[in-house]
Write a sequence for this structure.
């Protein structure tokens, strides 16, 4: 580049001997610390405040090689380059003062109109103005908000959204007069050079506009030296996701509403790349010295911390979800677990006890008044020593706000403050209740937004606090289709990224007014059986009662053929009417034939005599299956005081049927059954009849025949 081209990028240029002085773009300069001159075919830059040449050229948006003069034919090379964009800089009345010309391969030259109908490639004597000044004046006059971005391309893309925008690159203090009454949001490029330029522009703007915010769309990603992502990258990505321009504009406005007010960034902050990035919130002074990988031999010699599970499936630096529908008791279950973790007591199957932990709770839904009242009820029967442990080792964040903004953990300033508080307390485990209350998110069904604004910050949160993190979430609609159980498909509502990016998932379902069932659809390691908890409303405590099992549609279908029955498709549909759809029956019949469990002869389905499920009318089981069934029976007997009784079906049927655990648990999934008024459990329908009976053998049975109680 020529000396004049470099000078055109600087501010407050003054002639000084055989060179010039100007404001240094690499730091907040008020004294024209930069010396610029040409010698032996290269441009020499020296900042008397100490900035090195690399920092200066990065702030100018050029490379060190651009300081060297190009061969004479370079002038012709510029003429050979293709012009891809011309950005007009006009005065308040729309008269063009100068232009910034973009070439391909990427390069820029500034020019101004001359009196010969052409252009002079020099800005000497040209009045400097903000980009798109006429529109800027009009927008501010009618009270519109204004967005500032680093380049003209970004400003043009903002304009296509119907928003007032200009570029803050090479911003001058005299430009502030145009924005004096405006609320301004500055969108920075996600790189170190962009952070520096944005910070310098904000220093000039601060106190001279109605309000000033900064926004970085890529806070969850590493911060490169330069050539980072910008607003145009984000906008194009949203278009590819199918959003219209109006929807993109609305999303941007929401992000702007949630953006942080600008605050000065010190030199040490910039060196540590702290800025506005959650992803880079950690010490990076020796980042260049970090070893990227290891040979396996090296890895064998490294002393690594032992992974210890604090809560089932979750150790330090790991995050999971607890899903439940509203008003199921997930917050209460979390508080029960919290107290047991602090006291070192077991809360099976989630923790075995034995070790005491310091626990933090971030509650974004309840009030401090209710939270204190709830915990006091739970510990009412505790001894004084236990209460003292809870007072010292339980840390509560509730009703937290910063100024007029409620806590949102994906806002960088909020993130930093909470991280610092958790680390000062020294927590081992953190509970967040709930994920959609604790994070600012517009569309929980958008995978990319969930990853960027929730799951990535959660991962960083767990790492930077060195804690296990369990987050409560609302549950989606469960369907027991295609022979699958809740373990396979029961997830929280919204994008699949909630589940995909969680190491462990627990689900909590209601089972009547006083019971819940805790299940584990995702866990690396040995899963636990669905566990029943009974709820004590007065003490606000959950007490474990035992385990239960869910019967799949596939097993329900095979049940129809247990006694060697041969059925037509119509008969199968009739018997399963109300329990599963015709499409589900079709899929399961196909699966059963493919597995060899059922055969079809002409129009009749029947059990395959050679199937492992059939052996002279009884089930032939592997050793593993036998052990499973034995455990199954033992669990059932533990829960059922009437396990050994024989039940009489009804007065018209004298057949004695032994009680079985399978029938008992199968009954809990029957959708055509009612409940026993004595014990509250589901009554079972007898095949081929309309009578329902209590599988637990209550003496006061409720029989239903023809839809009427007897």
């Amino acid at each position: 580049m020529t000396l004049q081209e470099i000078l055109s990028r600087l501010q407050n240029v003054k002639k000084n001997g055989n060179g010039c002085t100007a404001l240094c773009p690499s730091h907040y300069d008020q004294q024209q610390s930069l010396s610029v001159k040409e010698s032996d075919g290269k441009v020499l830059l020296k900042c008397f405040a100490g900035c090195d040449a690399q920092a200066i050229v990065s702030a100018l948006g050029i490379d060190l090689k651009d300081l060297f003069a190009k061969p004479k034919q370079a002038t012709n090379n510029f003429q050979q380059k293709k012009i891809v964009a011309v950005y007009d800089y006009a005065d308040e009345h729309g008269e063009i003062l100068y232009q910034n010309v973009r070439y391909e391969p990427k390069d820029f030259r500034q020019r101004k109109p001359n009196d010969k109908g052409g252009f002079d490639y020099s800005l000497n004597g040209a009045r400097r103005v903000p980009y798109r000044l006429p529109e800027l004046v009009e927008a501010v006059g009618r009270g519109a908000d204004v967005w500032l971005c680093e380049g003209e391309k970004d400003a043009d893309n903002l304009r296509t959204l119907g928003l007032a925008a200009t570029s803050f690159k090479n911003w001058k203090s005299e430009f502030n007069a145009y924005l004096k009454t405006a609320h301004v949001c500055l969108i920075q490029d996600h790189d170190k050079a962009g952070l520096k330029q944005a910070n310098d522009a904000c220093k000039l703007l601060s106190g001279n506009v109605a309000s000033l915010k900064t926004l970085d769309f890529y806070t969850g990603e590493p911060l490169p030296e330069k050539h980072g992502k910008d607003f145009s990258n984000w906008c194009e990505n949203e278009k590819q996701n199918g959003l219209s321009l109006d929807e993109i504009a609305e999303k941007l406005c929401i992000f702007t509403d949630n953006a942080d007010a600008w605050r000065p960034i010190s030199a040490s902050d910039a060196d540590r790349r702290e800025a506005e990035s959650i992803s880079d919130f950690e010490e990076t002074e020796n980042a260049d010295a970090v070893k990227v990988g290891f040979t396996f031999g090296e890895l064998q010699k490294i002393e690594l911390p032992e992974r210890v599970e604090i809560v089932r499936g979750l150790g330090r630096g790991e995050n999971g979800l607890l899903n439940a529908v509203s008003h199921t008791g997930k917050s209460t279950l979390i508080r029960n677990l919290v107290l047991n973790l602090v006291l070192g007591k077991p809360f099976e199957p989630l923790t075995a006890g034995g070790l005491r932990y310091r626990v933090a709770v971030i509650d974004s839904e309840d009030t401090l008044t209710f939270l204190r009242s709830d915990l006091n009820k739970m510990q009412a029967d505790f001894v004084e020593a236990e209460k003292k442990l809870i007072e010292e080792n339980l840390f509560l964040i509730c009703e937290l706000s910063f100024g007029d903004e409620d806590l949102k953990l994906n806002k960088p300033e909020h993130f930093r403050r909470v991280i610092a508080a958790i680390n000062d307390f020294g927590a081992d485990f953190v509970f967040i209740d709930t994920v959609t209350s604790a994070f600012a998110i517009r569309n929980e069904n958008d995978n990319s937004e969930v990853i960027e604004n929730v799951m990535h910050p959660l991962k960083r949160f767990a790492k930077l606090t060195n804690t296990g993190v369990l987050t409560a979430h609302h549950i989606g609609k469960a369907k027991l289709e295609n022979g699958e159980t809740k373990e396979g498909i029961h997830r929280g509502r919204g994008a699949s990224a909630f589940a995909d990016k969680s190491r462990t998932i627990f689900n909590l379902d209601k089972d009547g007014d006083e019971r819940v069932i805790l299940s584990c659809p995702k866990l690396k390691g040995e899963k636990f059986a669905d566990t029943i908890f009974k709820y004590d409303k007065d003490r606000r405590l959950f007490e474990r009662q035992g385990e239960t099992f869910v019967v799949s549609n596939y097993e329900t279908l095979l049940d129809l053929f247990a006694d060697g029955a041969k059925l037509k498709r119509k008969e199968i549909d009739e018997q399963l009417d109300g329990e599963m759809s015709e499409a589900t029956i079709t899929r399961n019949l196909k699966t059963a034939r493919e597995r060899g469990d059922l055969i079809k002869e002409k129009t009749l389905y029947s059990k395959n005599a050679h199937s492992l499920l059939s052996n002279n009318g009884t089930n032939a089981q592997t050793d593993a299956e036998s052990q499973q069934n034995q455990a199954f029976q033992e669990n059932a007997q533990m829960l059922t005081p009437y396990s050994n009784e024989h039940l009489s079906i009804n007065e018209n049927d004298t057949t004695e049927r032994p009680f079985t655990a399978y029938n008992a648990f199968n009954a809990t999934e029957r959708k055509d059954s009612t409940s026993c008024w004595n014990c509250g459990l589901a009554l079972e329908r007898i095949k081929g009849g309309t009578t329902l009976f209590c599988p637990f053998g209550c003496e006061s049975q409720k029989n239903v025949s023809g839809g009427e109680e007897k």
